[in-house]
Design goal:
single chain, about 450 residues, 21 helices
Length: about 450
Amino acid sequence: MASGSTFLRLWLTDRARDTLLSSLPKEDLSAFRLACHDFSVRAAPLLFENIKVDFRASTFTKPARMAALDRIGHHVQCVTFSMAHTPETFLPPLLDPTTGEEVTFIYEPYTQTTRDSASRLSNPTYGSWEMTDMLVKQYSPLFHAAANVPSFIRAFSSIRNLKHLRISCPGQEAIQRFRRSIVDYALISIRIAVERSNLLLLDTLTLLSIHPGAALYLNPSMGFGALPSSTKRWKRITNLTICMDSIPFAPYPPLDHLKLVHSYLQLFASSLTDFVFRWQGVKGLSPLSLDKEVCLQKNSPEMACPRRCHLALRPLKFERLRNMEVENIIVDASQISSFITAHRHTIREFNFEDTHLRKGDWDQALTPLTRISGSDKWKEKAEEVMDVPLLLSPVGLEERKANEVLLDYFNYKPKAFRPSIGAWQKAGARSRELFPEHMKRFLRTSIFNWR
């Protein structure tokens, strides 16, 4: 009885209870909820805070599953929607059953959310009854589930406290980039559902392993069921992370895809505070300076809309951007310099990971920092960050003596530190080749002699 009362006092202490629940893995939380009603109520917010949806044909249409989402939806703060490109998501050409000729399908999303079966059956889902009949007979149930916009709207309306939306669509082959797949119809449905659901807390969007064409289907300004108020919903996004399949730029880059990416980023120009962009695969052009790329300033017959090729891209200007990171890009020093100058009043931190400069050097790229600060003192404060994969031991030094030397070293901090390279002068050429450059720099600044 005493132990029960002690546990009860512990359980009724909010901080102790929350710490205990946050340390439990999800498998244990699921079993923990089965103990009693109070345990179930307390564990539910943590257990359902982050959920992952692997989209299938019955994901948003199965009544029992949707009823469960209605019960736990108010706990959900982060949703990961995953739908990989597979042979099941490939869409073959639509053929006329009588003539065998290919039929053009112009998609217009059916967004009516009424539950009246009579009104639902009185209107064709895909424009006309003939087209609806062909699609039902020739395309798989997964396609119809992805194009079922009302089911997406109902699902997102159940998670009204959503703060972070993650979308993952990996596995698209380069040869399929100019073909529409079932994944693209699902992206259209997600976009419409977000726009028509009351998601007041949604401010973070993460696109993981996304294909370049997704920029078309997630952009409300490109049509596909968009409303005049659609862009307002997406302008509330303040944190954007994109990890996109690389678009090779040589010898003939797919210029239309680059323009779609540029247009999609323009959508967030007035709201973003944190932005991260990574190319997956080979290095790609910087998404922040596509308006300065020569290949996008020339008329090209290979573009999908050659009549509009003469229109120049508007430069990207993020009005509230504070933190920015781009990775795996090829860019000119002048482009980086122009971007920093244009955002000098708001930006606080920028990071260029795995970046290759085509023209110029980093001193030229970071020249605006000198103009902003008025001097070159920022170069003195620059720190070199590296990963040290090995922890080596000094040669010929006892452990006790090594501890004494280390203690003296940390107690005495000289104002100026001059690295000694005597030890490296003793090393042979073969030994030096075995060490990466960052290990050489690390060992040169050591207080010991290393072998």
